[in-house]
Design goal:
By secondary structure, this protein is of the alpha/beta class. It has 16 helices and seven strands. The protein folds into four domains: 60 residues, no CATH class; 100 residues, YqgF/RNase H-like domain (Nucleotidyltransferase, domain 5, 2-Layer Sandwich); 90 residues; 112 residues, no CATH class.
């Protein structure tokens, strides 16, 4: 409606513009830009074109081409800038049911968000409307908040996200589809049951230690020992120990059920089956790696995958001197723990194996020690996993490394 109104106003004023311009040009000599009636008409057309161009320019500058969204549960903050970097869309409070409609009405633009809860869902929704969505780790957005100027609030977070997403050296998180998120949901639920089971056994050890009973760390030894001392526990302590053991049994059943589901999903995928051919990679590790890195196209090489998981040493180098410290432990701790447990299984099962991989692992352990060998094997498996997923059937190890 605004464009129609502008055109109507300009077209209405055009005769008056021509009349005023004719009066202003009256008496001007041809040598100084006159030219009679033709010159007056050309001058009027130039005024009209200038008015329309200013209108179109103002309209184009109001289009936000970069938008930052601070995600939340119910109230979101949106901040957008135009080509000149000036604020073009500032909405400190947007209700959850209004966010999708607000973004859907915008022309295709770049949308930045922090990779937090619900970010992948919103990214899929916004991409369906032609937008380019880029997710970032929250720790990479923090330096752009400029807390000294604006403080910490949702509006400042949205502005910081908008600023961070425009940085050319920024690293982005790949947007996950629904199926990988479903697989990772299985892993997180199973891992929660495992942690709860561990906490239950630790609680049991702490309770019975108050009565002078010290239980071993291993679960099999714990159950055998507590069974011999149940009659010694006074009063309600006996019932508490029995309830904790029954709860641990139910958690064992849930963990076994999720192991079955994860194994079924891993064996149904050709890529995860190829990963399970590698030593130290079972169905749980293969399924988690596939759901996390997909086809590996978001990484340039396998070393980036190992660094992303946190299996590479941190650098403290300066003045041309290279100083390498402990592993960074960056990225997903769940993936890192699975790869480390797989590496420990490889070392414990070496035996008298004479293949190239086993000889390399045995020599590494003798030269660098057990734990350094574990980390090196875990990093190597991460790099090999990327190569298997990236190149598929075209990837083949050298005969001496099989």
């Amino acid at each position: 409606m605004r464009n129609i109104k502008i055109r109507f106003t300009v077209s209405t004023l055009l005769p008056q513009i021509i009349h005023n311009n004719a009066k202003r040009m009256k008496g001007t000599s041809p040598s100084r830009g006159g030219g009679g009636e033709g010159a007056r008409q050309r001058s009027a057309k130039m005024v009209f074109a200038s008015s329309v161009n200013r209108t179109r320019k103002g309209k184009s500058m109001n289009k936000s081409i970069t938008v930052g969204i601070d995600l939340a549960k119910n109230v979101f903050a949106v901040y957008g800038v135009d080509e000149a970097g000036k604020p073009a869309l500032v909405k400190p409070k947007v209700a959850r049911e209004q966010l999708h409609e607000l973004i859907a009405q915008r022309p295709p633009c770049i949308i930045g968000m922090e990779a937090c809860s619900g970010a992948h869902h919103w990214a899929r929704q916004f991409r369906a409307h032609g937008h380019t969505v880029r997710l970032m780790a929250p720790k990479f957005v923090t330096p752009y908040r400029m807390s000294g100027k604006r403080g910490k609030n949702d509006a400042a977070d949205a502005a910081a996200i908008c600023e961070a997403v425009m940085r050319p050296a920024m690293r982005f998180v790949p947007v996950k589809e629904e199926h990988p998120q479903i697989i990772l949901c299985l892993h997180r639920t199973r891992n929660g049951f495992v942690e709860e089971r561990t906490a239950t056994y630790n609680r049991l050890r702490g309770l019975v230690s108050e009565f002078g009973i010290v239980l071993p760390l291993k679960v099999t030894g714990l159950r055998r020992t507590i069974g011999d001392h149940l009659e010694e526990l006074p009063g309600y302590a006996n019932q508490c120990v029995g309830d904790l053991l029954a709860h641990a049994d139910r958690l064992d059943e849930r963990v076994a059920e999720y192991d079955r589901l994860i194994t079924q999903a891993a064996r149904a995928d050709t890529r995860s089956k190829r990963l399970m051919e590698r030593p130290g990679m079972g169905p749980v590790t293969a399924s988690a790696l596939l759901a996390s890195i997909g086809g590996g196209h978001d990484f340039k090489n396998g070393r980036q995958v190992a660094a992303w998981i946190g299996l590479t040493p941190g650098q403290y180098s300066s003045g041309g001197k290279t100083r390498l410290g402990r592993i960074t432990k960056a990225g997903d701790p769940y993936l890192r723990s699975l790869l480390v447990m797989g590496a420990r299984a490889i070392l414990s099962g070496l035996g008298d194996k004479r293949d190239g991989f086993s000889r390399w692992a045995r020599t590494l352990q003798a030269r660098r020690g057990y734990w350094r060998a574990v980390v090196a094997i875990a990093a190597k498996n991460a790099r090999l996993a990327w190569a298997v997923l990236r190149y598929g059937e075209d990837f083949r190890l050298k005969p001496d490394m099989t």
